[in-house]
Each structure stands twice: as structure tokens, then as C-alpha cells.
Fold:
Amino acid sequence: MTYTIKQVAEKTHLSIYTLRFYDKQGLLPFVSRDQSGYRAFTDGDLLLLHTLSCLKNTGMKISDIRQYMTLVMQGPASIPQRQQLLRTHRDAVLAQQRAIARNLQEVDRKLSLYDSPIATDLVGLELAAARKEKTANGLPDPFSKLI
Amino acid sequence: MTYTIKQVAEKTHLSIYTLRFYDKQGLLPFVSRDQSGYRAFTDGDLLLLHTLSCLKNTGMKISDIRQYMTLVMQGPASIPQRQQLLRTHRDAVLAQQRAIARNLQEVDRKLSLYDSPIATDLVGLELAAARKEKTANGLPDPFSKLI
DNA sequence: ATAAACCCTAGACCATGCTCTAGGGCAACC
DNA sequence: GGTTGCCCTAGAGCATGGTCTAGGGTTTAT
Structure:
């Protein structure tokens, strides 16, 4: 049992364009062609495609995915390099997740400010201070450009 | 006290290019110009720039940041719209974080497979099965292209 | 045997987010 | 008054990751 590119696109929710693009980028070295030159995806290929999606969805760059898939093609001997690649990626993703969480905290702070019953007053004070700072420095007041 | 674009670049770790690009994109409507047409950043501007960085670092698109900054320029009256924008963004970021965590779990599964003492055997079996699947379907074996 | 519905490649095109270059003005020091 | 070191704009260029078009072959059903 093999699958056409259309069937794989439906299964993976990747577009046919994207699948062909990935192939062109060397991300699908495991996919064979039939007599007509058509890509024939096996179930094993779908598993590798799933791995590819996980790497892509965690933000791995195409060049790194290509490297990983190349290592996969080389069999068990490449396990150490695969480990290193995945571990490096994993660490980068976790660091990025932490950075995003930190930055999102600040967004949350803004949101709780806006949720305050005196939000209007606080924001009004902030605005007044900003305008004052501008004029104190002999600068035009950008907040009145809206008039 | 105001800051030049160079000083702001140093403080924020954004490049001068990026700051000018952001300004061109309408992300810095609050920054005034001095008599020479030079950007003059105030301390209040730096706070807004910090907010901008948080939004950018959590992946908000430039068009949405522009919208937020435009709302900020309008003063307290725009608080409801700001809330909606930030909440939508916050929810999207959290959903994205969860999606990444899910995908990273699969990467971790791969890593623990590679960590297994019988990793070589398991990977070897997988490879053998994949090759068998290809030939069973009358397809060329892509794993021998390396010879 | 011809239409419909697939498949292919090469390469153009696009969106996003910068990054850099060219050409020119301002400001301070020697 | 020239050199240095900033500042400016407009617009070109680039990296990434697709997305689409043109031109052409294959398969299946009628």
C-alpha cells in the first residue's frame, strides 16, 4: 500500500506544494518514485513525515531538518549525531519557550493594568506624563497628531 | 534627557536598522523629532519600546503591533480595544506554547529511543522494515543511494 | 480516443522581517 | 574649513518558508 502526494497532503494537513517544496529541499530523501516518476509514500514514510512535522512545528530550520533526515538515511551508525542534533534543538526550544513565557508575563501585567477599575485614570496619567516629558525636552507632542 | 537612536539601539539590543525599520512600519508613532529631524527618544518612549519588544518576542506580527501602538496613541478611550488585542494575542501565544510542548514530546521520545541500550538494534530493525516495505511495493530502495 | 483528474519539474512570485547602501545633512573639534 | 561621527531617507537586497504558474506526461473512465 502506498499513497499519492494528494493523499499524503490530506493526511498530514500539509499542502501538496509544501510536500513538493520539502522534497526539493532534500527533506524527503526516503520517498521513492514509481515507474511514472510519481512519488509513492509508504506507511514508513508517513512516520518519518510525522517526525519531520514535529521538528518543523517546534521551529527547526529546514537546513537542520535536512541534516537530520540525511542522518536517518545512514542507519544506526548515525545515532550519536542524531542525538546531538535533537538535543541541541530541544534545548533551544526550551530556552525559547522560557523566553516567551517571560515576555508574556509583561503582556499579562499590561492586561491586569487594563483590568483595574482605575485603568482609565492610570493610563491617563501615563499619557499626561509622556506629553509633559516631550514638551519639557522641547519636542513636539506626538499624541496630538490625531486631532 | 533624550536619547539618540544609537543610544537606544545599545539599550534595547535592537539594531539601528531595526529601530528605523520599526519607525517606518508605524510602530513608533510616539517618537518625536528634534529641530534637525533626528529621532529623540524619551524615557517614556523606552517604556513603550519595551512593551513593543515583549510583543515582538512573543511573536506578534508587525501589523498587530502597529495597531496596538496606534491604540496607545489614542489614550485611555482605547483601553477596551487594547484589552481585546492583547487577550487574543495572549491566547494565541499560549496555544502555540502548548502545541510546541506537544511536538517537543515526540522529539523527546526519539531522544529516549536513541538513549536506549538497544537503540542500534531498534533503529536497524526500523530501517530493515522500511526497506522491505519499499521493495514489497516494487519501489527502489532509497536507503541504498548512499553506496 | 478523448476528457477528467491526477502526477511531474522549473522557476517565478510572495510575505515577513529585517539589513544594508547610496546620497546627503548636521554638529563638533582641530 | 575640513575631517569625523553622528543623523536622515529611499530604496535595494536578503533569508526563510512557502505558494503558484506554465508546460507537459499519465491514468482511468466513457
